[in-house]
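My current task is to audit a protein record that another person submitted. Please read both lines and tell me whether the tokens look consistent with the sequence. Do not assume that whoever made the record got everything right. I have pasted the whole thing underneath without changing anything:

===
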Amino acid sequence: MPPLPPQPISPLDGRYRPAVSELGEFLSEAGLNRARVHVEIDWLLYLTDHSMFGSTPLDPELSRRLRSVIQDFGQADIDQIAELEATTRHDVKAVEYYVRRKLADLGLTEIAELTHFGATSEDINNLSYALTIREAVTEVWLPAFDAVIAELRALAVAHRDDAMLAHTHGQPATPTTMGKEFAVTVHRLSRVRAQIEATEYLGKFSGATGTFAADLVADPTADWQAISRGFVTSLGLVWNPLTTQIESHDWQAELYNRISHANRILHNLCTDVWTYISMGYFTQIPVAGATGSSTMPHKINPIRFENAEANLEISSALLDSLAATLVTSRLQRDLTDSTTQRNIGVALGHSLLALDNIRGGLGQISLNTDALAADLDTNWEVLGEAIQTVVRAEVTAGRSSIADPYALLKELTRGHRIGQAELVEFVQGLDIGDEAKARLVALTPASYTGLASQLVDHILPPAE
């Protein structure tokens, strides 16, 4: 059998590429190299703008042309850096040589020695990762996450009054509304989203062991901490003054833990919706031409939610590993983070794929209000809670002498199916006030939803 032509090993770069390809703009080797070029050029310009070592600021046109190297970065540049790395066997050094070539092309060889000046590879890498991760999260992952939250918010509002039987421990429980249950998920996701959005993307630029030693030797009169802070913040990052050779990656651990937390909330959503589908609470809208089962023609499988579950699990496993391992580096530096960080795109990619599946799945379900109503109508015993609570209030108010309301209702309802007629008869015989009796007689499982509908208001944007 002849060998296949080269194939992607990861499903993210194969079967699922259309759903996650936007991440490649940032969390790929090419995206990382473009960010490295960005950092190297911005550092060089920062030094010349501050007239370091007798240099002078570039005239606006030359500065624009140098910055266009970043803006126009494409396949030819990717190939050129790969060619250089084949010789250097060092990725950041290849980028440095690439930048030096560009300086030569622009006739700027007199400032070539300011390229990578005083920098260790990690000064370039940590800033480049901060830039690419920030862009991947804010430009790609968060919009997809927001789209799911928006879809859930719309479902919460649409179904805020659709009463359904709750199931605690898998057993019939006090009714709620489908909208309120979606609102719970929206509230949870919104809290985590705020934490993700508030992430501090830290950066360091302080040399081989974080001491500015080479910088200080080159110019003992310069305020290198201020220069470092100014440069890092000019990139829109938060300056980290105390590091070893590497930026400590704590901000990454915080970010990955939060995204992993979001994944797990979404996983909970998927298992719940899957269960509601199996209970008949949701019907699935057939997709023209789609096949649910290779042998059972009637089936519409909830594959969107199942696929999302699996991808969320993979994403969280990777994110948890990243968060756990990146915060440790032997003494002043080891290289474990180099390999680890190259999997950030894989971790976010599986989460992004899950978000795509969840949004697609939510768009293919329809609430079966008849099923909800039927389930409520066969579980009148859930009103036992309401009855015993009202009796307790009546006893406290002096309108009843019932000794143990809870035991009374437990004997009536626990392990028994009772209907409306039996409950009405039971209530009519209770030693309670007439107004309380009237309230209880009028109560149905479908109307026993408390403030569920109003609670949905908590996920709505404030009125202007």
